[in-house]
Amino acid sequence: MNDTTEQETPRRKKVLLIDDEEDFCFFVKLNLEKTGKYEVITTTSGETGLIMASKEHPDLVLLDIIMPDMNGGQVAGLLLDDANTKDIPVLFITAIASRSETQSQDGIIGGRMFIAKPVTAEELEIKIDSVLHE
Q: pTM value?
């Protein structure tokens, strides 16, 4: 009797990172994918990010606030207005809110989830897991 059962590997969560800093995108993608829990797709443009969110339907959008073509608030608003993307959680990653501000308010400012830059890979993973309830 052969009792082999295939171990089912859990599906990696798809994360879309929209940030105009290419080095930051590289850092986040490298470190999150290294955990084996995430597939990370990136873009440096808010406009392209909207297209990617609609096409890829990620489990989470990581979104910078200050970007040249379209700011994070505009991107988040358009994601909410689109029936195809309105249910995707958005986590803002920004240098305009300090680490102490985000920590003292449990990462929520104005009803939005935030994490302050600079951020370590471990902090980001913990926050993403909490947003995705892992």
A: 0.84
